[in-house]
Each structure stands twice: as structure tokens, then as C-alpha cells.
């Protein structure tokens, strides 16, 4: 193949020209769902190989503050994850957290240089503002961030409780921005944008957030003992310890309501109830957070809304009414309808309202305000009614997620760059086709069900006492195993050289997932949305017409193998032994790492992304290049996340042995090892093999001598 | 489809001894489907021959490879013209038809067969092939429920089963189905058991004069009118 693969490319030159890059993967649903369009599949795959630092690099390419997302992202990617159709989605956010903690994120210092003169002011230091600052700085602009509070972070700092996002994480990111040269102006509320223009700023990004709590609009709302959820969290997050009494009720069903409830528990409240007017299904809060709140002792009353508040004997008497769900409303959720005569009373010390927030944009900004007091912008350019003024974040969308804010911040940076250079905004076109379509039941049936590994959390009793982070980070092995569950959507096989395909049906017959099929015209189709990218058909196709969309197949192996064989030849150590080792999981669990360390001189390890991709010809090639022995070490059928891999490896080994026997090379020279074997120490097995090869080598060398 | 198997390496190595430069030619049709002479096998053989030569310490031969879409039609072989000029022999991984077509197309270059052509057959499953047709030129499958006794009965008898059938298997090989039992069962299913009761006279195999030629075009006499 080493002569022919280039030959084949020449022969199919026209095809190759149409697809200039070997990598033509489809965009997986997780990436499509992510507001930042992060290369999730790629970094999850790197974690599955134990290559955590590289995974972090991939993460940082599209996310300015991965450490923040690692704690609080609402992970729409997980909702889109197709593993969810098989069992449960990949724990992507927890894996990101692992990559951030173990990949050395704190050490990363982006290098920046000021290459533009135009200064940009950012009003508000929430995630959108900080992301814009990060990217504008990277683009080479002098950037100032104006923050009304004493510390940066916006909702990250004043909205999200410390037990969900430790403050060191925000501090580290802020510190990084300062090192990048971003000018920080805290305690500087901006009253007028004209002042900023007068100060010489050429563009302004308004990202003031949505901090104003919405009112219930019921009788008695002005009574003391009633606080707004966002304001309450702000007070606590800025270090105050407001007294909430023993019994607390929270009205609302979003993340603010849950955060407020869990915070009051930590402030010493004994009885905490959440009143939500719809049912659990409609609850916008993150289900995992809801679950943790319930574990901690928060009681949630569904289909209940307050209708009247009265102050009696220093307490609040709350009249509630039960609801039932009617027709869907504009948001698509079923509208709650009061049930007449179902009123009941509860007595509480404090009532926290968390039914939503709206932005509060100073009038002097002279910005056009739209629905829900939000700033009106062009969704593509983020421009407002004022020249040079851009806006984004919650101030534009109303309360949304951190990742959405980061995405707008990044968008704003590039649009401001366009504006300052009089470029017509280039609407970012999708470079890659997106993978669409669900897994078929027959494919799902064949996919091994693997339990989702959740990151550990502190026990509820321990966590309600203080504001320490609730969720802990994965250990190495759990992270690697969790990452190995990824189905690698959009990376699978495709018939690249249709004209070579003889429709021999090999792919159809060897696929463990029954993915390839014959269409009505008698052509083989390999539907991308079903393929599991195991690579078996690629290695078995007699016409070499099939490749993986992401070159983890023969093309990549050829390249790396040649590299290794070159180094091996230079070292001149004899006998030369090449070991093909599965790279998935093993660095993490140590087996491959110890193989690397303990290999005696003369043994070269060639890591492969699943040994099912090793072909008979690779084995022969290695012998051709002077090796005396070859071993293939994989994880065995039980541990491999794909099906039938061991069977195919053994098929290819048998074929190689048959050929080698005809040349007079003993079958012991090719061996398969199970890296997860527990009964025998792997190093010992390897030693035995080395010894054997050494013996065979010596014997053949003596024969040579005698001949001469 | 034609099914073949690659020749033993030793035989191939013996054949190529007189030649220095050898072009291995794969075939992209039947030999790809049965896997004996596909592009993968061509490059595998290339590697193997190279390895065998290195291990024996000689450096006599040099190899190149190319896989054409189909070796049994002259038109597909034109792409080889320049490559063949460079070599001393062609090692064909096509079936017997392919080898001969190559030999006809390149009369000045020796063409060596790299595979043994076995039969016309079908895949039972991945990696298992069964013979199905003997190309007798006088098909009787309508009378035998789509199961060919010429090919699938060891004796090739037209009126079976013989006395050597036992529990549905053949006396020659107890793992092999008796095709006449299969025929019986299938005729029974089709409600055509009366076909078993008929006597089929022996066929005259001398009526197959080799080599056969099939002409499908009509003779058109020059100058003839069409009305």
C-alpha cells in the first residue's frame, strides 16, 4: 500500500482534488448545539486517549473561559448528544472540567500585541463583556472594561452562588485578562455613552446584563420580608449574610429560584419551599440542579402560585392557589390555569421572588429599547440605533445562559473589528456540513450500552453547611472511560472512491452495526448518521474504496508508522520489535504508559486509535522494514467501546501468519495481547515475547552465518 | 461471479525467477468481490514478495502494482501500456480470462497467473464461497427447483438421489448437503413433486465443443435493404 496509496490518489486524482483535505468529517450534533460551536467530539476523543493537554488546547480554541463553562454551562451539547438515544448522553461538561483541571489551564497565557489604535470600551463585565474583551485584545485592540460593582464578572459573580462557581475561577480568568493588557475600571458605573466617546473610545459594547427582578403583581407585594431573587443572590455573593429566618418560600422555577433556595439553606434556613406554577417537566432550571436541591432538603410545590401576601405577627401569610395546565402558550409550554376554590395558606419568614429579570438600561444611553426592556440590536452585526455602539448578553436577550453570553461576546468582538475597519460584516458561513438524522433502532440495538459516569458530588449533609463547590472533578480513569462512550458522530466511514467499489458487499457483511445497505439502484450506501466509525470496513474493503471521514485509518497509520520505522532503523538496535497499541483509555489506566516506560531498547510502540484499524499489510510492512516481531495490544472485547474488534484483529494476524509461514517466518513472531489482562502482568508477557523473538532472531542469524 | 484463490507464494516466486521487473495487476471486478486479486491483495502480494526477497537476502526483483477495473476486456487494459513498457513480466491477479486477455493485449510481455481460478459461485457468508454453476450450456434449473445437480451433486447425476445419500448428506462428504434431497424438499415446497417422477435422459457432454463462442449480433449483409 505504501507505493499504491499515492498511486491510487494519482489514479483518482479528480476525486482527490474535489476533497483537498483528508478530514471531511460532518459537524456532530453536540457542536451544532453549542453556542460557541466548540469541537466537542475532538476534545472528548482526546480525553478518551488520555491526551488531556491537547484536549484543553482544542477547548481553548473556541472558548475564552473554559474553566467557567466547566462549572456552570447549561450544556445544550448534552441535550443534542446522540448517545442519549442509546442510553445517556456523554457527560461533556464534566469532561471539560476534567480537561481544565488536569490539562493545566491556569498555566496558559495567551500572547497578545497591540496592533490597532482604536480603543474599545466595554460597559459591563459579565461573561459577554469579558469574552468581548478577550477576543478584542487578541485582535490587537486596546480595551477598557467598565464595571459598576467593585469586582468583575457580572452575573458570574453576583448571580451564581459560590458552591456552583468558585470565585478563584473567575479571579483566574480576570487575572489572565489583566495580563493580556485589558484595562479594568471597577466601581465605575457608566451614565452616558457620550462621555466614553469623548474619552476617545471609537466603539462601545454595552453588556449591562439583566439584573432587575420582575414583580409578581399581587396584593401585599410591598410588605417587608419579600426580596427579589437576583438582588438576594447579589447580596450574598458580595459577602453579606442577610437573615432569612427559618422558613422561606421561593416563587419561580428557573435557575435563580433553585440557586436562591439552596443559598437560603446554606444561610441557615430550616424549611425551604419552592412554589412553581407549572409541573416539573416545564421547569426551566437544570434538572441536575433541581435534583441536588431536593437532595439538600428543598421542597418543591408544583402547580402552585401565590395570590396574596399578608404580614401577620412578624411573619408572612402567603395565600396560594393550585393550578392546572391548559393549552400551550407562546413559549410552547402549557399555560397554568388557577383552580377555583383551591386556595390555601402557608406561613413563612421570607419570600423570595424569582420569576425573571429584565435589563435596566440607563436612559442617557439613548438606546432603542424593545420587548421586556431589552436593547434592540441587529442580530448579525449586534449594532444598536447609535453609531459605534454594540450591545449583547442578557441586556439584549433577557436572562440567558453563560455560554450564550460568551458566544455573543465573541461575535461582538469580530463585528466591532469589522466596524472599525469599515468592513461589511462577513456572516460566518458554516464550513462543514452538519450531521443530521437519528440513530435507527436497529443501530441502537447493536451499540453497547455503557453507563454514564457522573462526576462525584459532596454528600448533601456536607454541602448545605457552607458554600464549597458541590461537584467534584473526575478522576483520570472515570474521565477517560466516560469519554470513550462518545459515538464519534460524523466521523465514520464513507465510500470515497465510488468508481473503485465493486459492490462486493464486504462492508455490509463485516459491519457489526449493520450500517451499510444496498439502495434500490444496487449501490452500497454507508449512512453517515448510523456509522460508529469503528473502521472495520475500511480495513476489510478489498478495493480500498472506503475511508474514515476523520483519517484515523490506514492513511494516518502509514504516515506514523513510517516515522517510527525511520527512527527505529536509525537506532540499529536488534532485534527490532514493533508493537501496535490501542491508544484509547490506556494512557489513562496506565497500561500503555507503563509499556512505553518499560520497553526495552529495540521495542517500538506505535499507538493506534483502536487496533481494529491495523491491517495485515501493516504487519507485513513492519517485517519488510526489518522487524523481527510484531505484537498488537488492544483492550480486548470487553473493554473496547466498539464491537468485534478483537475478532478482526485475530483474522488479520492469522492471515499475516499464513503469509509469513510461506516465507519461513515463524507464527510466534506475531502476537496479540490484551492490555487489560489481569491474570498475567503485561510487562512479563511482553518480556516473554521479547525473549522468544530474540531466540528466533539469533537462530536465523546463525543460519545466515552457516550459509555464508 | 468467478471465484479464485491466490497461488501459493512459493509457486509465484518460482514463476517470477527469470524476470527482474514485475508488474502486479489486480482486477477490480470478480477478483475484488472474491478478494483474491483486489487492489488490497495486489499491494499485499507486493509487500509479501518484497519481504520474501529481503529476508532471503537477494535484491533481484523490483515490483510495481496497478489494479484495473476489469482485466477481461481489452479496453480496460490501455491504461497499462506505459507501465508494461517498463517491466519484464506481468503477474496477473485476474481470473484465467483476465490473464489471457492481458496476454493478448501485451503479446511481447510474458503474463503469469497469480491466482488459481476455481469456479463460478456465490458467497455463503463473509469469507466462504460455494460453487453454483458449471457453465454446461444447457440449463435445467427449471426442472430442479433452482438447485443445480450438475454442480452441486458430486456425481452430477440428472436423476437423483443416488443410494449414497444419508440423512440429507452426501456419501462423499458428510458435511456436504445432498443436492437431490435439497431439490426434493424445494419441489415439495413448490408443489411440483411430479418433476421428481420424470426421467431425464443422459446428456451428451460431447455437444460442448471447446472453445465455445457466442455470437449475439445478427449477420447484416452489405447493401441489403430494410424495407
Short descriptors:
heterodimer; A: 708 residues; alpha/beta; 5-stranded parallel sheet; 29 helices; 16% strand; elongated; B: 227 residues; Rossmann fold; 4-stranded parallel sheet; 3-stranded antiparallel sheet; 8 helices; 9 strands; 22% strand; globular
Count of DSSP strands of chain A: 24
Shape of chain A: elongated
What is the helical fraction of chain A, as a range of percent? 25-40%
- C-alpha-based Rg of chain A, rounded: 31 Å
Q: List the helices and strands of chain B in order.
A: EHEHHEHEHEEEHEEHH
Q: Give the DSSP E fraction of chain B (strand runs of 2 or more residues).
A: 15-25%
Give the termini distance of chain A in whole angstroms: 33 Å
Largest Cβ-defined interface: A-B, 32 and 33 residues
Structural class of chain A: alpha/beta
CATH evolutionary superfamily of the largest domain in chain B: Response regulator
Strand order of the largest sheet of chain B: 3-2-4-5
Structural category of chain B is alpha/beta
The count of β-strands of chain B is 9
- Tertiary shape of chain B: globular
Outline the low-pLDDT stretches of chain A.
Answer: 1-20
Integer-rounded radius of gyration of chain B: 23 Å
| Main sheet: strands, sense, barrel of chain A | 5 strands, parallel
Which fold name fills CATH's third level, the topology of the largest domain in chain B? Rossmann fold
Distance between the termini of chain B: 42 Å
Amino acid at each position: 500500500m505504501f507505493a499504491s496509496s499515492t498511486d491510487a490518489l494519482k489514479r483518482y486524482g479528480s476525486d482527490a482534488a474535489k476533497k483537498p483535505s483528508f478530514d471531511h468529517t460532518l459537524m456532530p450534533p453536540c457542536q451544532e448545539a453549542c453556542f460557541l460551536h466548540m469541537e466537542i467530539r475532538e476534545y472528548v476523543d482526546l480525553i478518551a486517549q488520555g491526551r488531556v493537554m491537547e484536549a484543553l488546547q482544542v477547548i481553548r480554541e473556541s472558548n475564552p473561559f473554559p474553566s467557567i463553562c466547566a462549572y456552570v454551562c447549561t450544556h445544550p451539547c448534552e441535550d443534542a448528544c446522540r448517545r442519549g438515544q442509546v442510553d445517556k448522553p456523554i457527560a461533556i461538561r464534566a469532561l471539560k472540567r476534567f480537561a481544565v483541571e488536569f490539562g493545566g489551564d491556569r498555566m496558559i497565557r495567551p500572547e497578545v500585541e497591540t496592533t490597532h489604535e482604536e480603543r474599545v470600551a466595554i460597559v459591563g463585565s459579565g461573561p459577554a463583556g469579558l469574552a468581548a474583551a478577550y477576543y478584542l485584545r487578541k485582535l490587537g485592540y486596546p480595551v477598557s472594561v467598565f464595571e459598576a460593582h467593585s469586582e468583575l464578572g457580572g452575573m458570574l459573580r453576583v448571580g451564581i452562588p459560590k458552591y456552583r462557581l468558585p470565585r478563584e475561577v473567575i479571579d483566574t480568568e480576570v487575572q489572565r485578562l489583566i495580563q493580556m493588557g485589558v484595562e479594568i475600571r471597577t466601581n465605575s458605573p457608566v451614565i452616558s455613552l457620550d462621555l466614553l466617546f469623548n474619552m476617545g473610545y471609537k466603539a462601545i459594547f454595552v453588556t449591562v446584563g439583566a439584573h432587575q427582578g420582575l414583580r409578581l403583581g399581587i396584593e401585599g407585594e410591598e410588605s417587608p420580608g419579600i426580596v427579589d431573587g437576583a438582588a438576594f443572590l447579589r447580596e450574598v455573593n458580595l459577602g453579606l449574610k442577610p437573615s432569612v429566618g427559618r422558613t422561606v418560600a421561593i416563587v419561580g422555577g428557573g435557575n435563580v429560584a433553585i440557586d436562591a433556595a439552596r443559598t437560603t439553606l446554606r444561610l441557615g434556613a430550616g424549611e425551604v419551599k419552592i412554589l412553581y406554577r407549572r409541573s416539573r417537566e416545564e421547569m426551566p432550571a437544570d434538572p441536575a440542579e433541581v435534583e441536588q436541591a431536593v437532595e439538600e432538603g428543598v421542597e418543591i410545590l408544583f402547580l402552585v402560585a401565590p395570590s396574596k401576601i399578608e404580614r401577620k405577627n412578624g411573619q408572612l401569610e402567603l395565600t396560594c392557589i393550585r393550578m392546572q395546565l391548559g393549552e400551550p402558550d407562546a413559549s410552547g409550554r402549557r399555560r397554568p390555569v388557577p383552580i377555583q376554590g383551591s386556595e390555601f395558606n402557608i406561613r413563612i419568614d421570607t419570600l423570595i421572588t424569582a420569576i425573571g429579570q429584565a435589563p435596566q438600561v440607563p436612559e442617557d444611553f439613548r438606546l432603542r429599547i424593545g420587548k421586556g426592556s431589552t436593547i434592540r440590536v441587529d442580530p448579525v452585526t449586534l449594532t444598536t440605533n447609535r453609531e459605534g455602539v454594540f450591545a449583547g448578553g442578557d441586556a439584549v436577550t433577557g436572562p440567558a445562559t453563560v455560554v450564550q453570553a460568551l458566544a455573543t461576546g465573541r461575535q461582538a468582538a469580530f463585528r466591532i473589528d469589522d466596524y472599525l475597519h469599515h468592513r461589511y460584516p462577513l456572516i460566518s458561513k458554516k464550513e462543514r456540513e452538519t450531521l443530521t438524522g437519528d440513530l435507527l433502532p436497529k443501530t441502537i440495538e447493536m451499540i453497547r450500552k455503557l453507563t454514564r459516569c457522573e462526576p462525584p458530588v459532596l454528600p448533601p449533609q456536607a454541602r448545605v453547611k457552607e458554600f464549597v463547590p458541590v461537584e467534584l472533578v473526575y478522576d483520570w480513569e472515570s474521565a477517560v472511560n466516560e469519554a470513550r462512550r462518545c459515538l464519534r458522530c460524523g466521523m465514520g466511514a464513507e465510500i470515497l472512491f465510488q468508481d473503485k467499489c465493486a459492490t462486493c458487499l464486504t462492508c455490509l457483511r463485516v459491519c457489526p452495526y449493520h450500517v451499510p445497505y444496498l439502495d434500490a439502484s444496487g449501490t452500497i450506501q454507508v449512512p453517515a448518521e448510523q456509522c460508529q466509525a469503528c473502521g472495520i470496513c475500511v480495513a476489510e474493503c478489498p478495493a480500498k474504496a472506503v475511508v474514515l471521514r476523520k483519517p484515523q485509518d490506514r492513511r494516518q497509520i502509514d504516515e506514523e508508522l513510517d516515522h517510527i520505522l525511520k527512527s527505529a532503523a536509525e537506532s540499529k538496535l536488534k532485534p527490532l520489535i514493533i508493537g501496535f497499541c490501542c491508544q484509547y483509555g490506556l494512557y489513562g489506566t496506565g497500561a500503555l504508559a507503563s509499556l512505553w516506560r518499560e520497553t526495552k531498547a529495540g521495542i517500538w510502540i506505535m499507538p493506534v486509535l483502536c487496533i481494529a484499524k491495523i491491517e495485515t499489510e501493516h504487519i507485513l510492512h513492519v517485517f519488510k522494514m526489518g522487524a523481527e516481531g510484531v505484537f498488537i495490544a488492544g483492550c480486548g472485547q470487553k473493554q473496547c467501546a466498539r464491537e468485534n474488534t478483537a475478532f478482526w484483529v485475530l483474522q488479520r494476524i492469522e492471515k499475516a501468519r499464513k503469509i509469513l509461514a510461506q516465507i519461513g517466518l515463524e507464527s510466534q513472531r506475531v502476537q496479540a495481547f490484551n492490555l487489560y489482562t489481569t491474570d498475567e502482568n503485561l510487562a512479563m508477557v511482553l518480556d516473554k515475547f521479547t525473549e522468544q523473538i530474540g531466540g528466533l532472531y539469533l537462530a536465523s542469524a546463525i543460519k545466515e552465518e552457516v550459509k555464508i | 461471479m468467478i471465484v479464485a484463490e491466490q497461488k501459493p507464494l512459493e509457486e509465484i516466486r518460482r514463476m517470477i525467477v527469470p524476470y527482474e521487473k514485475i508488474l502486479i495487476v489486480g482486477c477490480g471486478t470478480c477478483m475484488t468481490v472474491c478478494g483474491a486479486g483486489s487492489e488490497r491483495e495486489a499491494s499485499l502480494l507486493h509487500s509479501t514478495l518484497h519481504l520474501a526477497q529481503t529476508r532471503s537476502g537477494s535484491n533481484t526483483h523490483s515490483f510495481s502494482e496497478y489494479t484495473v477495473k476489469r482485466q477481461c476486456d481489452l479496453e480496460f487494459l490501455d491504461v497499462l501500456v506505459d507501465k508494461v513498457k517498463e517491466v519484464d513480466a506481468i503477474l496477473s491477479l485476474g481470473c484465467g480470462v483476465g490473464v489471457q486477455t492481458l496476454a493478448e493485449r501485451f503479446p511481447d510481455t510474458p503474463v503469469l497467473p497469480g491466482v488459481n481460478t476455481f469456479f463460478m459461485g456465490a458467497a455463503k457468508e463473509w469469507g466462504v464461497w460455494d460453487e453454483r454453476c458449471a457453465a454446461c450450456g444447457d440449463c435445467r434449473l427449471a426442472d430442479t427447483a433452482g438447485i443445480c445437480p450438475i454442480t452441486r451433486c458430486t456425481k452430477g447425476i440428472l436423476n437423483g438421489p443416488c443410494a449414497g445419500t444419508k440423512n440429507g448428506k452426501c456419501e462423499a462428504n458428510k458435511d456436504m448437503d445432498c443436492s437431490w434431497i435439497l431439490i426434493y424438499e424445494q419441489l415439495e415446497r413448490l408443489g411440483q413433486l411430479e418433476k421428481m417422477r420424470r426421467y431425464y435422459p443422459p446428456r451428451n457432454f460431447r455437444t460442448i465443443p471447446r472453445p465455445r463462442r457466442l455470437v449475439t449480433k445478427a449477420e447484416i449483409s452489405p447493401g441489403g435493404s430494410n424495407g
